[in-house]
UniProtKB/TrEMBL annotation, chains A, B:
Main function: Modulates transcription in response to changes in cellular NADH/NAD(+) redox state.
Location of the protein in the cell: Cytoplasm
Chain residues forming the annotated DNA-binding region: 26-65
Signal peptide region: none
SUPFAM superfamilies assigned to the protein according to its UniProt record, in alphabetical order: NAD(P)-binding Rossmann-fold domains (SSF51735), Winged helix' DNA-binding domain (SSF46785)
Protein name, UniProt field: Redox-sensing transcriptional repressor Rex
Pfam families noted in UniProt: CoA_binding (PF02629), Put_DNA-bind_N (PF06971)
Gene that this sequence comes from: rex
Top-level taxonomy: Bacteria, Bacillati, Actinomycetota, Actinomycetes, Kitasatosporales
Domain CoA-binding, first and last residues per copy: 89-190
Family recorded in the similarity comment: Belongs to the transcriptional regulatory Rex family.
Originating species: Streptomyces flavofungini
Presence of the UniProt keyword S-adenosyl-L-methionine in the record: no
PANTHER family (UniProt xref): REDOX-SENSING TRANSCRIPTIONAL REPRESSOR REX, REDOX-SENSING TRANSCRIPTIONAL REPRESSOR REX 1
Presence of the UniProt keyword Electron transport in the record: no
Length: 255, 255
DNA sequence: GACTGTGAAGACTTTCACAGCA
DNA sequence: TGCTGTGAAAGTCTTCACAGTC
């Protein structure tokens, strides 16, 4: 099974597990805060607490990077900040473009967290001619027509898509064709990309839906004190339901 | 993907794995699109493609909900929309408050994806007195002083935090004290909450950092064609590095 | 014949618990 | 003594592959 992988092949991360990679930014944030308070060293226990994970996990994560701690003492804060930054590729400058300057795109353009982590917003792009030239976050919005030129002139390899869902795939295709190989997608749609291009998505409503799921559980559990198969509601219960083409089930949702 | 929850052992989700729950909104979105095109049934293969997962995973996921398909045919779109909505708790109305009406908070307030999924923005709250009364997304911003009253008057159990990092924990504490049991956190900080409260976080810069990590790998791999232990760079390689209190390593990062 | 539902295998992730070093 | 680094165990998630059903 050489190349023909379906979609997300875990991207051969030179031994560092994906789950660990996803936590490195968390550690980095906690470490940066310590660094700003001039704390010289930190134990796995303390750092784990600051990052919101447990210490065994943190130590295991760090063990994939190397042996950067000192037994009996802990980790040198500055040194670890450097190592993690390097591992994440943050010691270099990453120009990014944001496409789709609506409410969300504008908020992203104004978001300080990017610049402070080695990301530089190289351009803001929107399809609306009326937006062109208007300043957002101190930077003139450019028109989609120039997308390809902007990408190549600035050597951009990371693109952020904040367009409506309908436009996202098209924008994505153009970004990829122009040389972008990493995409952060805020549009509520699935993007199809060729092999070698990474996509990460952030969907605001999905997060709320997951919360709602657990919230519903909590409410249900209040009544059923025992931990059984708490089928508190008279609703359809698991496998036993057989659907009919009609039945008592509402056929449509509140769209 | 942004995960949440401070620690807690998987919140007793009545058998449905957390990973499955996290994908239900994805399926729901794909199904809703099919429904709008009046597609009556769909196979696991088709739906999986539309949701960006593979079909085995999708079938396994659905098997946790019940036997809702028909062998040889596929799934009834409307029926599945209903079942998933119910499972996620979207057949009821969830009032939410957004605290922190800066760029991001305002973007969230304007975001259409909430309302269409059973979430109703009940109030916008900000600490800045100058914001109070100003309309955002057709709704007057209210002052933090009234937070507790707003929560209880509206029966809010889900809160969205979009404040600066420094204010987030305090806002969180007040939300929780007022009765909120689910929190979606956009502030780049770890929130501490009591047992029984769920937190999910979305951190924009973390997603970019993960992309940067993979981006850096891609750049590195270009040189090393063979798939060996591609230690292409002359940099520190795994466990063999021994740190000194100085050495050739820069001690400080570009903050 | 087509497609779902699911045990079983495999991969990945977390946690435990302790040896080993400063 | 105090704390890291890590094998091994436990737990979770994904994938396979095929029996079962329409």
């Amino acid at each position: 099974m050489a190349t023909g992988r379906t979609h997300r092949p875990a991207t051969r991360s030179r031994g560092i597990p994906e789950a660990t990679v996803a936590r490195l930014p968390l550690y980095l944030r906690a470490l940066t805060a310590l660094s700003e308070r001039s704390v010289p060293t930190v134990s796995s226990e303390e750092l784990a607490a600051a990052a919101g994970v447990n210490s065994a996990k943190l130590r295991k994560d760090f063990s994939y990077l190397g042996s950067y701690g000192t037994r009996g003492v802990g980790y040198d804060v500055e040194y670890l900040v450097y190592q993690i930054s390097r591992e994440l590729g943050l010691t270099q400058d990453w120009p990014v473009v944001i496409v789709g300057i609506g409410n969300l795109g504008a908020a992203l353009a104004n978001y300080g967290g990017f610049a402070s982590r080695g990301f530089r917003v190289a351009a803001l792009i929107d399809a609306d001619p009326a937006m062109a030239g208007k300043p957002v976050a101190g930077m003139p919005v450019q028109h989609t027509d120039d997308l390809e030129k902007i990408i190549s002139d600035n050597g951009v390899s990371i693109g952020v898509i904040a367009t409506p869902a309908g436009a996202a795939q098209q924008v994505c295709d153009r970004l990829v064709a122009a040389g972008v190989t990493s995409i952060l997608n805020f549009a509520p749609t699935v993007l199809t990309v060729p092999d070698g291009v990474d996509v990460r998505k952030v969907d605001l409503s999905i997060e709320l839906q997951i919360l709602a799921f657990h919230e519903q559980r909590k409410a249900g559990e209040e009544s059923a004190a025992d931990d059984g198969d708490g089928a508190a509601e008279p609703a359809v219960t698991k496998a036993q339901h057989r659907k009919g083409p009609d039945g008592d089930v509402p056929a449509v949702m509140p769209a």
